[in-house]
Design goal:
The chain is α/β, with parallel strands linked by helices. It contains 5 helices and 5 strands, in the order βαβαβαβαβα.
Length: 149
């Protein structure tokens, strides 16, 4: 089991999806007895500023994992993924693509650019909770995060 204090970054521009993700994570992680801090940013440029600890994110702790949408304004999730995985200071962070896109081209590109996994967002709340619980069981139960740098 991963030690308490998991730092999660969610990159999502849709307010309803953000609320759903937040509720599902809180339910799954709390039920598993894990403490965590959830950071929310609304687009790819904010995500990169957060990860590079640029204003207004100078004092943040780098996340242990990133959950990221693809279709966002200003900079899409695939472009952000590529930047993360080509930055030696960030490449160690697991990135889970959590998106509505089931397009083969998006899936292939995400894995080509080293996404840790690719989840298509379920449409119903119960299915969404199930998906987040499966994510929690693997990433916060069976797997181990890289040490914080």
């Amino acid at each position: 089991m991963t030690a308490p204090g998991i730092e999660l970054l969610v990159v999502e521009d849709s307010e309803p999806d953000t609320v759903l993700i937040q509720e599902a994570l809180e339910e799954a992680l709390t039920a598993a007895g894990l403490s965590f801090r959830l950071h929310l940013v609304r687009d790819g440029l904010e995500a990169l500023a957060f990860l590079r600890q640029q204003p207004p994110f100078e004092d943040v702790v780098l996340p242990d994992m990133i959950l990221m949408d693809i279709n966002m304004p200003r900079k899409n999730g695939l472009d952000v993924l590529h930047e993360i995985k080509t930055d030696v200071g960030l490449t160690h962070i697991p990135v889970v693509m959590l998106t509505t896109s089931a397009a083969d081209t998006d899936v292939a590109l995400a894995y080509q650019w080293q996404a840790s996994s690719y989840l298509v967002k379920p449409t119903g709340y119960d299915q969404f909770i199930d998906a987040i619980q499966a994510l929690e069981a693997f990433w916060m139960g069976a797997a181990r995060f890289p040490p914080r740098v």
